[in-house]
Amino acid sequence: DGGITQSPKYLFRKEGQNVTLSCEQNLNHDAMYWYRQDPGQGLRLIYYSQIVNDFQKGDIAEGYSVSREKKESFPLTVTSAQKNPTAFYLCASSLGGMNTEAFFGQGTRLTVV
Amino acid sequence: AQSVTQLGSHVSVSEGALVLLRCNYSSSVPPYLFWYVQYPNQGLQLLLKYTSAATLVKGINGFEAEFKKSETSFHLTKPSAHMSDAAEYFCAVSDYRIIFGSGTRLSIRP
Residues 2-31, chain A: which have Cβ within 8 Å of B? Predict the structure, then answer.
């Protein structure tokens, strides 16, 4: 079954702790993306990667970090520098280029207490 | 930078009525546009995409969208709403990044 797997579905962390969200795809896609979703604000782009070992900041990268060491994996670390980390995080992938649609994982809901 | 604006954060229609969800884009070059649907606590699913091959694009679940360059619009329509259409809908534009609008929540009244 081809697709994108995000784990875990729900994640709880204490304030001040770093946390890493997993995203794996077996679609052989070159491009991968991380979005943050808050009520009424749509999806905001955190980081994206068009190719292995390369990634770019999106619109809200502050307080987040990523790596792209393997084509199929694009983990997102939410650091303690992120002021308001509680949100729904969505990972996506695409073939890359400008006219290719994104395929999404089921999301991870992060709650920081 | 390219962007999309969705007019109306919440739209409510009766079952069987026309669905119209509005999206306007801002782009200095021919845009690549998409509509996605999201059900509660799930990821997004592609409804349709504009490829410049035709201005009227048909998607899944009976939805379609018309690209109007003169109005910089890409509105989503469905002739007859069904209860199962209740969800959040997002318009998006791609320039290697994929940028989403703020979303429109569609409610269906029995």
Answer: 4, 31
DSSP state string for A40-86: TS-EEEEEEEEETTEEEE-TT-TTEEE--SBTTB--EEE-TT-S---
Task: Give B26 to chain A, closest Cα distance, Å.
Answer: 15
> Burial letters for B46-84: b for 16+ Cβ neighbours within 10 Å, e otherwise?
bbbbbeeeeeebebeeebbbebeeeeebbbbebeebeee
- Whether residue A92 and residue B96 make contact (CB cut-off 8 A), yes or no, is no
Single-letter residue type at B58:
K
Query: Whole-angstrom Cα distance, residue B94 to residue B58?
Result: 19
Beta bridge partners of A13: A112
User: Is A90 near chain B, with CB under 8 Å?
Assistant: yes
Which residues are bridge partners to B68 per DSSP? Answer: B73
Largest CA distance in chain A: 40
Percentage with pLDDT > 90 across chain A: 85
pLDDT digits (tens, 9 = 90+) for A84-104: 999 999 999 999 888 889 999
